[in-house]
Amino acid sequence: xxxxxxxxxxxxxxxxxxxxxxxxxxxxxxxxxxxxxxxxxxxxxxxxxxxxxxxxxxxxxxxxxxxxxxxxxxxxxxxxxxxxxxxxxxxxxxxxxxxxxxxxxxxxxxxxxxxxxxxxxxxxxxxxxxxxxxxxx
Length: 137
Known about the structure:
Elements lengths: L19 E5 L4 H9 L7 E4 L7 H11 L11 H5 L9 H10 L8 E4 L2 E4 L3 H14 L1
Parallel strand pairs: 1-2
Antiparallel strand pairs: 1-3, 3-4
């Protein structure tokens, strides 16, 4: 007799089960470089947003921390220009919908460390994440 179990655990920043998570794109060399800077991802839950899309609840947790969907939105995504979005005025609900609709619109990586969020690949953001990680090690 065979039993299959599907256990779902929320690894968000407000949970005690885990305190480190990286939302990334496995095909993105910049994300991979940053993960290496963070100890190769050891001790992190890694979520490849292409194969495991972010959920509305996860996006809402991110939004609560950063204060806007626009701050989580990547204007560098090829589809941003390809869909003519650079010529439109987008609202917060537009940003939210676009991020949930298409993984490339999430600014990445998004790094949670001990309840703090670090969004994007700017040097100062990555340096702050590395410093935070060193402080809890």
